[in-house]
């Protein structure tokens, strides 16, 4: 896990070195990774590079076809669609990454505790996960969003809490196999507390699968956010995400299909890229290919 | 299952009641006396625990209460009217998913790493990555508006049912094809398949008679999550295609703060998913003699 290599080390490949090598050979994953990297940068600098203002309306140019001035055309209010897709991407990506982070924190802590304590506690904690698996969380999130106002902070938390279950299972499995290892016994014998064994030794050592699953969580969260926004239950105007853009594109797709196609295309490319990257990372970090 | 159900009822009930805003404080200002009468009629002026108890008692008789927004209609009536539509859509989608998924996966497993494998498997990536609300509108755009092969909204003829059910079923067809392929390839390395081959059975016959039963196990265990996904996917599909199903009703009632309809619909969905997961477990045990739950 620890990737610092000392100059006097005799050759050999560390796990991470090996993994990066394998990842670079996977063209699709690499392409996906580059696209996501590019997209994150573009989203970060959107306010400076966007060709128009987010709310700028050009009333004589409503539903204009894609052209040199407006690459993706304009929407019903004459707003530049490229600009809106860029700003929408900021929201979608932000929700995707922050909500995934919430899910990682919850899942990792829960899984690590269950795996470390073991026995009956583990049993009860994992049964709870099993039961929660069977619940369609979308409905709870919808109810939550409707009744507690559609605020974006709530959205992060609600979506994060729908995604931590698999993470908890993965980490628990890792911790159970790791806690029998010598270095944990050594830590015990040195009198290190359980809490710091969990947080300093067990969790850092199970990060590989966590990173893989995180990469696969981000697209599903982006998807869920777009799903809610599409139904009008997610991000609210004046903010827009890809989901709201697609939804308003659907309304006028008969006369202006580009208003649907542009955001749908970018959303799809992002989801493809993240999925390819996640699959690539999984194959790279776990060549035996233990799916799920 | 019963305690989980009770927890769900309790959580949803109090979540809705503690949220700011009530069912009657929407667009137009209602005079205070009328508001009082309305609240009294629906027992909204009683203490919360009493309302909760009243709901539980009614629920034990499978009575989901009156709708707050649709005067003189009960939630039971609304569900009885809208649920069959959603059920039909869901079953059709599931049928598509199974037919397309198992056929594609079976073909792919017949000759791994051939063209027969690559084409359906690359196609399935689209199903896995593209959300319903992208596929649906695109199908409407191409087949409904440009080619004019199918109507774009409504729910009366069979033509109305094709695009929505394909939209909803496509993603699960993609997953099922991958699971079928994986399951079949894994099982084809087992001894009893080699024996069948040694007996001189043809490849397709081995596939159908021997491999399919064991190879279907991953697909069977996927049916639970698939069902939950189809139910929530129906919310979007019904909205896109303007289908008068329960999913669309759920969204509208949520936006209208129609407490009882939201509660009733959510509870129906929860119980449906519980029951189906249970059935899936039973089918799993029947198919796989190695698993015997005590």
Number of extended strands of chain A: 0
Calculate Rg of chain B over CA atoms. Answer: 24 Å
Strand content of chain A: under 5%
Q: Sheet bearing the most strands of chain A, described?
A: none
Kindly describe this structure:
The complex is a heterodimer of chains A (292) and B (294). Chain A is built from 13 helices and no strands. Chain A has 292 residues and is mainly alpha-helical. In chain A, α6 runs antiparallel to α7 (152-162), α11 packs parallel to α12 and α11 (207-230) packs antiparallel against α13. The two termini of chain A are 21 Å apart. With 294 residues, chain B is mainly α. Chain B has two domains: 2-60, no CATH class; 81-291, MetI-like (MetI-like fold). Helix content of chain B is 75%, strand content 0%. Chain B has twelve helices and no strands. Chain B has helices spanning 2-18, 32-41, 48-60, 75-110, 115-129, 132-146, 158-187, 191-198, 203-215, 217-240, 246-256, 259-287. Chain B is elongated and about 85 Å long. Chain B starts with a helix and ends in a 7-residue tail after the last helix. The mean pLDDT of chain B is 82. The interface between A and B is large, with 38 and 42 residues.
Secondary structure blueprint with pairings:
The complex is a heterodimer of chains A (292) and B (294).
Chain A: H1 15-25, H2 27-44, H3 46-49, H4 81-117, H5 119-133, H6 137-147, H7 152-162, H8 164-178, H9 182-189, H10 194-205, H11 207-230, H12 242-251, H13 258-285
Helix pairs in contact in A: 1-13, 2-4, 2-13, 4-5, 4-7, 4-8, 4-11, 4-12, 4-13, 6-7, 8-11, 11-12, 11-13, 12-13
Chain B: H1 2-18, H2 32-41, H3 48-60, H4 75-110, H5 115-129, H6 132-146, H7 158-187, H8 191-198, H9 203-215, H10 217-240, H11 246-256, H12 259-287
Brief overview, please?
The complex is a heterodimer of chains A (292) and B (294). With 292 residues, chain A is mainly alpha-helical.
